[in-house]
Amino acid sequence: MLRAHSNSVYLLPHEHAVARISHHEHRGLRARASVTLTRWLADQHIPVTEPLVDEAVEVEDATVTFWRHYPQPQDSRPSFVGLGEALRALHSLPRPPISLPTYTPLLGLTTELQRSDYLDIADHRWLSDRVEQLRSAYAELNSALGVGMVHGDAYVGNTLRGPGGTVLLGDWDEAAIAPRELDLANTFQGARFGNSRADLDEFVRGYGWDVREWDGFAVLREMRDLHTLSGYIRRSRRGDQRAERELCHRLDSLRRGDPGATWHAVT
């Protein structure tokens, strides 16, 4: 297994392939549509991870898609400037020939809060209230970049190094129609996870515009903070103690209003 969080990802070494399993309780947005979308994006010369099979496979309560495997170097990660360049290219495209949903802020977290009794009453109430406040603020945003196709979960952790060091965008389950700034705020929220000032400057150089200068930035950054909680609530409910400790830490820092608190990715 390469990864287990919102989806489970397995390496199939003899086939030079990766199997991505989306369970029906958290299918993101359409595993099948992500295959069709990435085929179209590749045809538009957007650097994306490419599917090996054009059809998704349904297995009991899960959907399985198969992707080309891109072996990664051990001593480096995809560059922030490359991520910025890839997003700039993506945002320059017209709307794709397949239907994409309009982005709904914090949908995954709202769904988790509605069906989970894991959180105590105070945390549940605080999160529910904050979601509604951020949704109201989001509805009032005036986009400087316009509304169009977005990746929906763009950050360096959803990229891979491709041939020649090209930065490839992967994990397209949350692609949607939204203000394009949505794809930019995530990298700056990643300062919680160690993104340095140099990393952020590289990203701005690659994209060609600094979202921090836009007056809606703080709303999107905090939305991203809350977005990251969904998987940790789900894993904590299943008994993952490491995820539970990290969830408690994140909730505590959010309720204290500490935007500089360091968070950790628990795999």
From TrEMBL:
Keywords: Transferase. Residues 5-215 form the Aminoglycoside phosphotransferase domain. The keyword Transferase applies. It comes from the Bacteria. This is Phosphotransferase. Pfam families: APH. GO terms for molecular function: transferase activity. InterPro entries: Aminoglycoside_PTrfase, Kinase-like_dom_sf. The lineage of its organism: Bacteria, Bacillati, Actinomycetota, Actinomycetes, Mycobacteriales.
